[in-house]
Design brief:
This protein is mainly alpha-helical. It has 5 helices and no strands. The radius of gyration is 18 Å and the shape is elongated.
C-alpha cells in the first residue's frame, strides 16, 4: 500500500512538471495552436503517461488483495479508489487527446489529490484492521452460502 501511495505522489509531482512545461510551450506559442502543445512535450509527459499505467496496475493488484480481506469499510475505500482512478484516467486522456481543455485541468488535479487521500485513508484502515481486527467497528462481510 505504501508503494501505491508513493507512486501516486510521484505521479502528482510529474503532473505538475508537465503543467510547467505546458505553460512554457503555451507562452512560446503565444497561447495559440493549443492542439500542438501535447506534441511539443518532452520526456516528462512520457514518464507521466507511463507511470499512470503502472499506477493503475498497482492499484488493481492492491485492490484485489484488499478485497479478499472481506471488511466492508475497506471494500468501500477500495471501490472509492477504483472510481477515482477511473475518473482520473478519463480526465488525463481527455487532456491528452482533446487539446487540453481548460476546465479539465483543475478536475484532473483535484481527482489526483482525492486519490492520494483515499489511498492514505485505506492505509490507515489497514493499520486499524491489523491492530483491532475490525475496520471502524464494522462487521466483516458474510460469504453467501
Amino acid at each position: 500500500m505504501w508503494g501505491a501511495l508513493l507512486l501516486t505522489f510521484v505521479q502528482i509531482i510529474l503532473g505538475t512538471q508537465v503543467r510547467e512545461e505546458i505553460d512554457r510551450i503555451a507562452s512560446a506559442a503565444g497561447y495559440g495552436h493549443r492542439s500542438t502543445w501535447i506534441e511539443a512535450l518532452g520526456s516528462v509527459f512520457e514518464a507521466h503517461r507511463t507511470l499512470s499505467a503502472i499506477l493503475v496496475l498497482a492499484n488493481v493488484y492492491i485492490g484485489f488483495q484488499l478485497w479478499q480481506l472481506e471488511a466492508a469499510g475497506l471494500r468501500q475505500l477500495v471501490a472509492a479508489t477504483g472510481v477515482l482512478l477511473g475518473l482520473e484516467l478519463v480526465a488525463g486522456i481527455t487532456l491528452a487527446y482533446f487539446a487540453l481543455p481548460a476546465f479539465v485541468q483543475p478536475v484532473h488535479l483535484t481527482l489526483a489529490t482525492l486519490l492520494f487521500g483515499t489511498q492514505f485513508l485505506t492505509l490507515l484502515a489497514l493499520r486499524r484492521l491489523a491492530r483491532v481486527g475490525t475496520f471502524a467497528g464494522a462487521q466483516p462481510l458474510q460469504e453467501a452460502n
